[in-house]
Amino acid sequence: MKRILGIAxxxxxxxxxxxxxxTKAPPKTIAVKAAHLIDAKAGRVLEQQVVLIVGxxxxxxxxAKEIQVPxxxxxxxxxxxxxxxxxxxxxxxxxxxxxxxxxxxxGISVPRQTLTGAKxxxxxxxxxxxxxxxxxxxxxxxxxxxxxxxAGEIPGPRLMVSGPALGSTGGHCDDNLLAPxxxxxxxxxxxxxxxxxxxxxxxIKYGADVIKxxxxxxxxxxxxxxxxxxxxxAEMTALVEEAHRQGRKVAxxxxxxxxxxxxxxxxxxxxxxxxxxxxxxxxxxxxxxxYLVADIYNDDFILGLGKQYGFTDEMxxxxxxxxxxxxxxxxxxxxxxxxxxxxxxxxxxxxGGNAKQFAYMVKYGLTPMQAIQSxxxxxxxxxxxxxxVGSLEPGRFADLIAVEGDPLKDVTTLEHxxxxxKGGQVIKNL
Length: 430
Ligand SMILES: [Zn+2]
Fold this sequence. Notes:
Bound molecules: zinc ion
Shape: globular
Oligomer: single chain
Low-confidence stretches: 1-21
């Protein structure tokens, strides 16, 4: 929330530069009407609703009969559509695209990645994701992106960003593609408790809102295995303690069963991927209230088109090892009551296709309402932004979307969002 307060403070500063404008124009009032509204928090559907917006925040939500629309308000009548809170994707890489994968990644500069991020930020917002958590980016390109969006310079979702992901030498969060004589390592590499504590402080210094680290090996890295652990329990505990001390949540990339258990015990806020989760992992995550953020759609893209996008044979082989197991693990974890937040790993597959994951979450055990909750109230809770986003309630940012049809009957309607508003600004109205 400090970050949000910081944003508010800097916006006030900007407003302060234009005092004449500020005093003349009162905040705009908008009434958005629709036949249906999904109250994700209560898990119910309300009929004939009006969302009254003043400036960038929601003032009131209620039935068309009860809400008095003030004279002079702009009315947006979405007819038979269904309104929902703006969606949240808790695991994206806006500064990455699948065509920059494998060895091609070595030729993409940080400034180029930042521009790729600007393109993807707009794309992601336009498909209805008004908030995203970006977990892992080179050269603080994600921090630059967040700041440019907050300054109103480029369109994009609200961003929570991690900067470079922390990890061990030679691990998934290192960059192992070059020969030893290049002496190259990723900027997030830190080994041992002291170095990890220092690196956590460093990424916070340069703008991280959240800390991402690699607890296990991964798919899109050279020479490691998804199932093996890459930080010791002591290293994970040191990282989490330092991050939490400074008010930052922690996202742990973990495919392997032991890494999931140890990361949850260390107190991380979310397990990313969770592919090889076992019974003990499920128990431990439930006990600690750890969120599972499992990217269960992208296997189709990776195995279908990965080769032509330049993913190496090793990466594709590893995806075959974990992809389907991850979906089965997700089903077991969800059925056991592990908290689920929506996260796609967009960047590994093309941005803008985030909502394709909803159908997979329903196929693997969630109800459509639970899938929607994972991308609204639950994701907002994981980010620590429940009082700002994730529900249509007074005081929240006016981040809302609408679809034609009933997403509770057919969750794929969320792949075709017709109306997007962020902070009271209409982004799209088809
Ligand atoms: Zn990722």
